[in-house]
Amino acid sequence: MKRGAAVEWKGDLKTGKGAITLDSGALKQTPYSFITRFEEGVTGTNPEELVAGAHAACFSMALSAQLSGAGLKPESIKTKATLTMEKLEAGWTVTAIHLDCSAKVPGAARAQFDELADKAKAGCPISRLLKAEITLSKTLES
């Protein structure tokens, strides 16, 4: 299985602009730039936001699989991924990703939920891809 995206960048780093299109068509010519990457409140995306979204989506699906495998049926799984990028001696580096998950899972005990969420965090393909520290907070809704 292969998945892809294409980008086109025009111009220099600080004043140039790019657009990303996903092979699936979910994003088409979505703008990104230096400003959307390093400033707040600007419309457009950036590579780090896309990685965070991919990680949150992957983890949620992995948790659903873990829960289903344990005979539990989740009503909802909400995950927010917060990626931290810091300027280190080597340059800008993604140093951590924190996953904040809240799930409504009828019949799930807290200890079982925590164990399955930890397995999902370790086992989702995006978690395995990333080398940054990945942390997770979990809420089991009643």
In terms of topology, how is this protein built?
Layout: E1 5-10, E2 17-22, E3 30-33, H1 34-38, H2 47-69, E4 76-88, E5 91-104, H3 110-123, H4 125-129, E6 133-141
Parallel strand pairs: 5-6
Antiparallel strand pairs: 1-2, 2-3, 4-5
Helix pairs in contact: 2-3
Describe the 3D structure:
The chain folds into 2 domains: 5-38, no CATH class; 47-141, GMP Synthetase, Chain A, domain 3 (2-Layer Sandwich). The chain has helices at 34-38, 47-69, 110-123, 125-129, and strands at residues 5-10, 17-22, 30-33, 76-88, 91-104, 133-141. Strand 4 (76-88) and strand 5 (91-104) form a beta hairpin. 33% of the residues lie in helices and 37% in strands. By secondary structure, it is an alpha+beta fold. The longest helix has 23 residues, at 47-69. It is elongated and about 55 Å long. The model has no long low-confidence stretch (mean pLDDT 95). The protein starts with a strand and ends with a strand. The protein has a 3-stranded antiparallel beta sheet with strand order 1-2-3. A 3-stranded mixed beta sheet has the order 4-5-6, covered by helices on one side.
